[in-house]
Predict the 3D structure of the following.
Amino acid sequence: MTTSEDQGRARVHKQQFVRRATSVARARSFVANLLAAITDDGLAADIRLCVSELATNALRYGPRGRDFLVRVATHDNVVRIEVHDASDSAPRVCAPTRNDDHGRGLLVVAALADGWGVSGRTGSGKVVWAEFKVNATTLTARSRPPA
């Protein structure tokens, strides 16, 4: 179920996802639909890629049988993407070798986002977030839920 609400000056959209591989694509689509009005296709692609990386980490490292939540908050000229999961272990940036087939997700997020980090949350688990600066007039138009 998707929910949307105003929280102060921020517009917040969130959706819970079942912990399965197909949920990564669904999370990416959820965010892409919310950000469809962004005029800069490159930024929209960067945000989708970061959602994929963060959702994949929640799926890969989160506890079995527990869902994850994707939250998108728009405020002033910032889009904040959050992925909430029930794991208390903090993600770590790896130093993969050329031949490693994993370990680059947070490096990608760090390279594409204007900021990222990890926060605690009420109850068990954590929030891994990424923020992106956008044009304020685009953000106002995009903050409305899709029709």
User: Anything to note?
Assistant: Helices lie at 22-34, 41-61, 105-112, 136-142. The two ends are 16 Å apart (CA to CA). The chain has one domain: 2-142.
